[in-house]
Write a structure and sequence with these properties.
Layout (H helix, E strand, L loop, with lengths): L1 H32 L6 H29 L5 H26 L1 H9 L12 H69 L3 H21 L5 E2 H16 L6 E6 L8 E2 L5 H10 L7 E10 L2 E9 L8 H4 L3 H13 L4 E8 L4 E9 L2
Helix pairs in contact: 1-2, 2-3, 2-5, 3-5, 5-6, 5-10, 6-7
């Protein structure tokens, strides 16, 4: 609230100073530098013209521009300003005639000589009407810039709201997808080893705590994300047979930074979903490292087609698609994602680099 008041006061002061400089240059500077004594009628005319320009500026700014010009009535706007300019000059001429300004000015510049009425010098009127339309032009420019700034601010806020809404939706999709696969793994363990299933449930509860609290934030600590990844991999290890060769390169400690939560989970989850076979030898490689401000994630796994009647087989790959979208929204021009599905070697790899700022 205080910031709004300060900005409003600055705007008022700027307008006052602007008009003070404008009036001084156009209506005071030249007469005062001549060192001549002008009649009261002359100064009255200068004051009236100055006030008329101020009134024109703000009438244009607060009414004609927002109500007519910005409502796609440019023709009417131009027409009204043309009429206003003619009326302005007409009033100046009328005032000059009423006070006999030509004779008064003759006495200032040629005192002691008889005044001979002459035709009006319309070049001075042309100068005045140019000043009038300058006021119109400045008010139109200021209003247009202000509207552009307001529209740009609104567009930015709408885009931000859309982005936040989309991110929330994407995370909401990722979370059930993750829990579905994890619970499916635990269900499989209950038929093999009850104690391992209990251990798995304890790890899952810790992971659920992370998902519950950390995914509500736009960013979390990289160390927390790393702990989450380790828990997930340990959970997955419980269901792996000796046929799976697992190579994990995760740092014990990592230089702290901010990162979007659960950003790497879909890639890691995909390794275990499609890279494990109960009949064939398989290999999964996962690496995460941070060098300077660049975070590098790499994963590679063999590809085994899941059965169509399993949850894995029915999955549409929504996690990977949503993660790509999250990267576009959260790290525009800051990420390099390369996904390779090598049919020759029957392997799938993800190479992701993120520049953290």
């Amino acid at each position: 609230m205080q910031e709004v008041i300060i900005k409003k006061n600055i705007s008022i002061i700027t307008h006052i100073l602007g008009w003070a400089i404008f009036g001084a240059v156009l209506f005071l500077l030249t007469p005062l530098t001549t060192k001549l004594e002008f009649p009261n009628e002359f100064w009255m005319k200068q004051a009236l013209m100055f006030l008329a320009l101020i009134a024109t500026f703000y009438f244009n700014y607060f009414y004609l521009i927002p109500k007519i010009l910005f409502n796609n009535q440019a023709g009417l706007f131009v027409g009204l300003n043309l009429i206003g300019g003619i009326a302005y000059i007409g009033l100046v001429i009328l005032f000059d005639e009423l006070v006999n300004m030509q004779q008064l000015m003759h006495e200032v510049f040629r005192p002691g000589t008889p005044h001979v009425p002459r035709p009006r010098n319309y070049s001075y009127d042309f100068y005045n009407i140019m000043i009038f339309y300058m006021a119109v032009g400045v008010s139109t420019s200021v209003a247009a810039v202000k509207k552009w700034q307001a529209d740009e601010k609104l567009r930015f806020e709408l885009e931000k709201a859309k982005t936040n809404s989309e991110l929330s939706y994407l995370k909401a999709q990722i979370n059930p997808h993750f829990f579905f696969n994890t619970l499916n793994n635990i269900y499989a363990l209950t038929n093999i080893d009850v104690e391992q299933a209990k251990t798995a449930l304890l790890k899952l509860s810790r992971m659920m705590r992370y998902v519950l609290y950390e995914t509500e934030k736009n960013q979390t600590l990289l160390s927390k994300e790393l702990d989450f990844i380790k828990d997930f991999i340990e959970l997955m290890k419980m269901r792996l047979s000796s046929k799976v060769k697992l190579e994990i390169e995760l740092p014990e400690r990592i230089e702290e930074a901010k990162i979007a939560p659960m950003l790497f989970l879909p890639f890691i989850e995909n390794c275990f979903k499609h890279g494990v076979s109960s009949q064939h030898e398989s290999k999964i490689f996962i690496r995460l490292a941070k060098v300077g401000d660049q975070l590098h994630f790499y994963s590679k796994n063999d590809i085994f087609k899941a059965k169509d009647n399993t949850p894995e087989g029915q999955s549409s790959g929504i996690g990977l698609a949503n993660t790509k979208r999250r990267l576009e929204l959260l790290y525009p021009n800051q990420n390099q994602l390369e996904i390779k599905n090598d049919t020759a070697s029957n392997t799938f790899s993800v190479d992701l680099k993120i520049t953290l700022t």
